[in-house]
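Appendix B, example 12.
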Amino acid sequence: MVDRPDEAFGIDIGGSGIKGAIVHTASGHLSTARVRIATPQPSTPDSVAAVVAKIIKEAGWHGVVGATFPAVVQHGVARSAANVDLSWIGTDVDAVFTNATGESIIVLNDADAAGIAEARFGAARDVAGVVILLTFGTGIGSALLVDGKLVPNTELGHLELDGYDAETRAAASVRDRENMPFKRWAKRVQRYMSHVEMLFTPDLFVVGGGVSKEATKWVHYLDLRTPVKPAQLLNNAGIVGAAMAAAERRDS
């Protein structure tokens, strides 16, 4: 399938699975069924690149590709590694994937991709000013957008708060591990988000991650000046955001 101006390929790389699909860039809908392959262990550059190449090849795709990566990604280079092999640190991820696939691949942080997806097609669509997406999962991911333009690699989950790395207190995994009721966990989220609010004065918070599917159980406990909306794209956010980032760079 040859690259079309209204489509791009999105790859979402996580610690347990690598997902991919063709995305219709005008609507944000998946043009093909999402394909998922388990993340190889160990998740080294060569092994992950081989899975990425397989997904793209089996789709018959030739053209622009965007890929999320669970790391700080600066000009295509991984500066950290979350839930993937530490050998990725310092690796030019763009180059590794491009060489493995023969396609032009643009790589960005996974939370940043989710932020782009929500700004284009989800809870933050047509919202002017400062939007902060926070993903609550194993840790806390973040995306900062100003008038729809991404400010990459904010990593707000690692803010120090009350002497702790914030995500060690307020991530969804902490609630699961400590078997906390939503109301009790929401107090920790409130403390964290009020700190982020003080620092950035956003116009909108979007809360994502798996726990966003249960937003009715905890979001109403938050008492913030800033409106809070649950993310809308859920499991497709990474694929859609990656494809959009690649398409927009192509088109510019």
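Residues 182-200 form the longest helix (19 residues). The radius of gyration is 18 Å.
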